[in-house]
Amino acid sequence: MDGDICATATTPPDSDPARKRRVHGMLKLYYGLNEEGKTVDQAESMNPCDINGTHFDPEVYLNKLRRECSLGELMDQETCMVKQIRSLDSDMQTLVYENYNKFISATDTIRKMKNDFKKMEDEMDCLSTNMAAITEFSAHISGTLQDQHAQITKLSGVHTLLRKLQFLFELPARLNKCLELQAYSQAVSSHRRARCVLQQYSHMPSFRGIQDDCHAIMDKLAQELRQKFRDGGSSAKDLSECVELLLQLDEPAEELCDKFLIHAQSRLEANLRGLEAELRPPLSSGPTSVIDPSIGPARRLSAAPTAGSPTDPTSPGNPFLSSSSRTDILEFIDRGCNEFVSSLCLVIASYQELFVNRPQEGELASKNIPHMAIGKLHAFVDAMATCYFLLVERRIQEEKSVGDNSLLVRALDRFHRRLQAVAKLLPGSAVPSQGTEIVVRAARERIKQYLAALQRFYLDSLRDVRQALAAPRLGGSSAGGGSHLAGPATGKDAPASLPELLSSLSASILNQIKSVLASVHLFTAKDITFSNKPYFKGEFCSQGVRESLVVNFIKFVCQSSRQFCESAGDRGGSTPPALLLLLSRLCLEYETSTITYILTLTDEQFLVQHRSPVTAVAALCGEAREAAQKLLNHYVKVQGLIISQMLRKSVETRDWVNTIEPRNVRAVMKRVVEDTTSIDVQVSLLYEEGTRKAHSSDSSKRTFSVYSGSRQQTRYAPSYTPSAAMDTNFLSNIHKLFSERIDIFSPVEFNKVSVLTGIIKISLKTFLECVRLRTFGRYGLQQIQVDCNYLQMYLWRFVSDENLVHFLLDEIVGSTAHRCLDPAPMEQSVIEVICERG
Amino acid sequence: MEDDAPVIYGLEFQARALTSQTAESDAIRFLVGTQSLKFDNQIHIIDFDDENNIISKSVLQHQAGEIWHISASPADKAVLTTCYNKTSESRVVTCGAVWRMPPEWESGSHESPDDPHNSHNPQNLELLCHLDNSSHGNASCVLWEPMGDGKHVISLADNHALLWDLTESSTQATISSSATLEGKGQLKFTAGKWSPHHNCTQLATANDTAIRGWDLRTMSQIYCIENAHGQLVRDLDFNPNKQYYLASCGDDCKVKFWDVRNINEPVKTLEEHSHWVWSVRFNHSHDQLVLTGSSDSRVILSNMVSISSEPFGHLVDDDDLSDGEDNHQDEKTKEPLQDSIISTYEEHEDSVYAVEWSSADPWLFASLSYDGRLVINRVPRALKYHILL
């Protein structure tokens, strides 16, 4: 219980106002009202032991007290409670007293109000009587004025009619005046206002006269309008006004449409002629250049520097150098857009304003002008656009140089963008889609040009490599062979070495491919309007760039390489062998890495989605490998042939029967060894060593028997002494049974040893076959022995399996012995002495 | 259909020259000339018994020298020509001569090939006449007039082509006309072939990389295929059924087929051998079968259907076709067949310098390698029936 209340409850009531307010507060508290009159949160008052709560249960409270409190406490509690009860009682008495006074004063007030209302009632009655009298008087007055009002109305109607009549009578004069002042629109509106009336009353002679006059004047007016329309000198606004007036004069809309369009056509054709003038005439009489005065002013100066190609402009014949035409394509398209397309848009807009979008009223609506007009417009726009497109396509076709693609792309973009305006103005027109087709065609054409340029570049590079290869033989430092291959590789002092040539060739091709890809990539740039067309998103990337450009180029490289093997003829005259070797290595590098790299690059740059089947990397690699193999085989064949020819000549041109005793190795054999060594050096520049069988310890020194199968002889029949041809045949056959068949012109592997083995095989086999066609004397045989020994000394180191050389040389010596009239072989020691003497 | 195994015959000496006995149409008979500088050279007459698969041989002595080329008369079985080396006073000269086989050779004992040393006094060839060419240089080959009466031969000697008339039973030879190849350097005919077409008035020769055609009536050149092969042309043969078609082979490992009316491009090129091709022969009856021999020791039989005289195979008579199935097959057979390699024969172990079809049996051929091995092979049965049926 509140101690505060306990403490103060004993003070007498009414002692001071503050005291009183406090008591109110307590009551308020008791009734659950706070200062603002809201119910106080009652959460704790749910407690039945709360003596101030609503749910107070005396029994529970008492029980609680009895249970919890000691006797003393209970006594205190009781005293406190008694005090509180007393104070509450006195509060209540005070309240009752106050409220009683207020009630008394209220009763008095009500009695007073009753008397006042009675007086007011009487006054109201008086007011209503007066109002009735007023109404009566007013009705009376209006009744009297009725007649006069009707008369006034009639008079004003006559006045209006008279004014209209006057307008009619004045109409011809007014129209004439309008005509003089060329205020056509006023005239037409005046006439329109009068027309119906005149029509209606035309049976009356006077009106008829007016009508005829008006007609005459209006005809004249219409004539003038038409004239004005036809002259076409007036501005578009004038023109449209003109058309509007003519339409109001019941001029047939169709005719007007036609006239309007014809007029527009003449202007557009003037634009087109202007454009055509910029094109080179189909049978050009030589480029009449930039100084052409008609073009001079139109030429934007800014365009010329940007057109500069990124490549070195000093190298002539470079396909990537742009050959300047009279105006660049951007300028041309700009002009086309600004003049033709914007005029066309203007025409479309004003035409639609005039004929299509007009609010249709009266009988005009029934003629369905918009439908007819739209049809005409479409036909017109299509026809004009076709002419324009023809010109644009011609211009695009002139764009042959592939130097700066951005110019073309920007031009196409502008071209395409401006056509969108037509699309907005004239929905459903075929023009934008045709424009897109032109862009697509141009892009396709571009890809073809790039492919051709790449191919040219490749062939030019090859030519340069060829020159670089030929240069050292001609005594070296003639300037400029391969100037646009990367500089240091073909420096002027030292002739370029094969690996340098190869790397510069492959790097320059790769760079070229990259730059072409970058150029082509412009077509798909995000800020280009047509790049989101389905063609450029899909087919352009996969079929165009990937297949037509990149894949075709790679195929071209392989194919042109293969052509070196075929067209050059079997004498190997035209293609230098070093080039074959270099190309073979190039193709091999393509197979191992470059193709994958290029295609990955393309796929990444163009986000190629392969909807249609595309050439697989593996297939291309296979092709490249095949080309590399073929080139290398051909290289072996050509080199083998060169050596073969030497050997053949040396065997065929000598009289072997009457030759002198051998004193030294024939020069041709030294030449063979020298050539083989230089081939070995050449090949080792580009190809790895390769594996070979272990050499025997006496590789360079072997004894040649005059009979083939000599080694088998020592191995299988040491004591055998050859005496008859039959026996050697037998032995030779046994030998062959145990040795593998040798394929002479067989494919080689991509390593040096295999290449050299191939060349040596071809050479020695030729030697063998030539020897078999000749007849030898004693010294002839001995010379062959010396030669073969010499070859043995030097050739074994080049081949993968030295036994091959042994076998072939054995065969040669054996066959020579057979073809010898007097087979008396030379002592091995003598042979060795001669060979070592060189 | 098992094919019969090849039959192999070994000569004692090395050999390059092989021909079939052209005038013999019943027995399968080949003539081989040997090359030996030390011993007397021989001509082996090889008879092949097709039914029993047995070879029998006769040997005739050819003492004049080693034989580089041999060819048999188309009219008289017993007459043949050889080109042989004659060594005298350390000079080697190649001569041509016409020989007659002694009439008794056939009655002589047929020796078994296993017993080569058993030859008791082999008989000598009877010399009919020399194709005396002392003024014209070394003879490289002698050609009989195809299907002629055995009265005309052509010999190619260095850069001369000489047309001989044989008179008095071939015992006398006179030059009736000659042509000379002129040009820079030492030109030399390497091979030649007398065309069986155009009434035998044409000759084709090879020198270096060129093939030339000659009209024998005027002895003038008709055509010249320059650079027919990348290197030496080794051999020529005419298609027996198509008059303008010619096959050539050479050191570029290729076999080329020419239409002499259009000499800019070969009609077809085969590149199957891995070394020089020394010999090419059309089958006499079925010209799609082409035989080539090479110094890679291989003999290749090719089926050149597309340029043969039977490009669609044998056409079946319409009467035989009654039901739809056969019609369907007929359509199939009418498609041009693919050219293909029928077979590669690897029985040789040395360079094969000569291959020859039998003149008696069109399905049989012989090849000769330098080590003296003669191999007789047959066209695979499957193909034979395919062509015939």
From TrEMBL, chain A:
InterPro entries membership: EXOC2/Sec5_N_dom (IPR039481), Vps51 (IPR014812)
Pfam families, A to Z: Sec5
PANTHER family in alphabetical order: VACUOLAR PROTEIN SORTING-ASSOCIATED PROTEIN 51 HOMOLOG
Keywords: Endosome, Golgi apparatus, Lipid transport, Protein transport, Transport
Record field: compositional bias (Polar residues): 308-321
The species this protein was found in: Oncorhynchus mykiss
Family that this chain belongs to: Belongs to the VPS51 family.
Stated name of the protein: Vacuolar protein sorting-associated protein 51 homolog
Assembly notes: Component of the Golgi-associated retrograde protein (GARP) complex. Component of the endosome-associated retrograde protein (EARP) complex.
UniProtKB/TrEMBL annotation, chain B:
Pfam families recorded: Beta-prop_EIPR1 (PF23609), WD40 (PF00400)
Region feature (Disordered): 104-123, 318-338
Record's keyword annotation contains Signal: no
Gene Ontology terms: biological process: protein ubiquitination; regulation of cellular localization; regulation of transport
SMART domains assigned: WD40
Family statement: Belongs to the WD repeat EIPR1 family.
Keyword Cell wall biogenesis/degradation: no
Record-linked PROSITE patterns: WD_REPEATS_1, WD_REPEATS_2, WD_REPEATS_REGION
Regions that span the bilayer: none
UniProt biased composition (Basic and acidic residues): 107-118, 325-337
Protein name from the UniProt record: EARP complex and GARP complex interacting protein 1
Organism: Oncorhynchus mykiss (Rainbow trout)
Ranges: WD repeats: 226-262
Gene3D superfamilies registered for this protein in UniProt: YVTN repeat-like/Quinoprotein amine dehydrogenase
Keywords attached to this entry: Repeat, WD repeat
InterPro entries (alphabetical): Beta-prop_EIPR1-like, EIPR1, WD40/YVTN_repeat-like_dom_sf, WD40_repeat_CS, WD40_repeat_dom_sf, WD40_rpt
Domain named EIPR1-like beta-propeller: residues: 7-301
